[in-house]
């Protein structure tokens, strides 16, 4: 994975007193096994932005709105469409485990 391609977007929730930072990454390789998968059995699932929005709208609508904002506010990334090159990762493989 390459380093983030631009500064993170920041979203705050005053009610819950927390802030979420969203980074855009370019995935160049997906490994079958990595340190956390071997050591603690962690699972991850990668989504294209459009797929992530659909899944999050059902499970985490506030987080889905972050991706909608990014999609509307940043139409390009160094001349490359953001939707074509960015992915989201969940900490669990099941949809109900998305954080």
UniProtKB/TrEMBL annotation:
A molecular-function term among this protein's GO annotations: bis(5'-adenosyl)-pentaphosphatase activity
Offer one example of a GO biological process linked to this entry: diadenosine hexaphosphate catabolic process
The UniProt keyword set, sorted, is: Hydrolase, Metal-binding
User: Mind telling me which GO cellular component terms the entry cites?
Assistant: cytoplasm; nucleus
State the name under which the record lists this protein.
Answer: Nudix hydrolase domain-containing protein
At the highest ranks, the source species' classification is:
Eukaryota, Metazoa, Chordata, Craniata, Vertebrata
């Amino acid at each position: 994975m390459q380093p983030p391609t631009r500064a993170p977007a920041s979203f705050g929730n005053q009610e819950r007193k927390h802030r979420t930072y969203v980074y855009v990454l370019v995935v160049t390789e997906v490994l079958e096994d990595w340190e956390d998968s071997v050591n603690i059995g962690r699972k991850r699932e990668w989504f294209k932005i459009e797929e992530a929005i659909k899944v999050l709208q059902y499970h985490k609508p506030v987080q889905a709105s972050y991706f909608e904002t990014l999609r509307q506010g940043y139409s390009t990334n160094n001349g490359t469409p953001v939707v074509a090159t960015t992915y989201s990762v969940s900490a669990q493989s099941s949809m109900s485990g998305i954080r």
